[in-house]
Give the backbone structure.
Amino acid sequence: MAAAKREKLGADTEVSVAELAALLSLSADRIYQLIRGGTLQTVKRGHLLLADSLQRYIATINKEPVSDEDMKLERAKQAAEVTLKHSKAKIAKLEADELEGKMHRSEDVAAMTEDLIYAIRGALLALPGRLAVDVANITSAAEASELIRAEIFKVMRELSQYKYDPQKYEERVRERRDWESFAAEDEENG
């Protein structure tokens, strides 16, 4: 019988998961765990480079034990990352709520309230000019008082018609954020 030809092992020698598991006295499942964890890398489905895999596995088992301080730092880092992700998610939700008109920033509410106050101020300051001629032609104080009261009620009725306008808040948000391009995009999309 002819002797089996020996293959030389080199940097490009490929082995199957089962062969590597047998060489390392591990199960195939453990090899797949190491692949999923990024410790080992496949060259094609179910095959790895022997030399590279051995070096990576040895490096993993020879790692220095992690000190308590390093573990604390790692835990603190992970906690900070989680907090940052939660904060970013919260900010994104608030921005989405604002854009959908479900929430308004205090500065937008203050600006809209200021606009309403200026409307009231303007209506009240216009009263003397609107009433001057009519009041001058009235002979009794009671008639003048009644005319002034009627005009004030008229102004109050006009102001009571003030309604929340989501479009105005949306305009303020866009103006504040300088989102003219966003408005153009909305018009294009219908």
Summary: The radius of gyration is 39 Å.
